[in-house]
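thread: overnight batch results

M.L. [08:02]
morning all. the overnight job finished for the chain we discussed friday. pasting input first so we're all looking at the same thing
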Amino acid sequence: MHYDFKQKLNKIDSQQYRNLRIPEIDWKLNEAQELFVKMIAEPRLRNYLGFETSQRSIDDIRTVVVKDYCSSIVNNTATLPQNYWHFLSGYVTMDKGNCKGVKSNPINIRQHDDEFEVSPFDSSSFEWREVNALFYEKGLKFYTDGTFTNKLFCMNYIKELKYIHNAADFGAGSYRLPSGTLLTGSVSCELPKGTHREIVDLAVAIASNDLQNPDFQNKIQKLKFNNLLQS
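M.L. [08:03]
and the structure it wrote out:
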């Protein structure tokens, strides 16, 4: 990906930006990787189609989707895993009287200003297998109408991405991030190989804009060809 980045940022047979250092290239690759996943999984301007709009979209981020993570619900709250990034879907199991381990419909993630628990049409219900939930700092809070108990929470989610880096070829074989984290060796992109060139294209466009490269619009056009950006 470093080689591809340098080839695409520089004009053919040119070393115009040869002074970009490995940590700087790593930073742009990681910015592009993060943006790539966000655009597929959860764009801010939602089209309500989800990220599984095509098999290609499914394949593009399948390696960072964690399936069936489960956590006990204590006092109607459940913690999130250490590597959690974005929620995709989930359900809970419920107990009521002699009915044990009943699986709910997909949980309803509510907004904090919703008055769902005072509405007879929107409140949690064992009979309808509807459970409302809110995200907060430490995890999720689940709601019940008082007649049943939420026991187990299971979900599918996108995990945090590994930081792409090539510290092995920089200086003495290591460098520190601005956060102070020491990086050694090298870590490749964990997304499928078919996405790597597109991620590099995105990283090059970001870098070209930062460098005020006159070729910036041409690089943006290539992203549009790959449907990463709208025309």
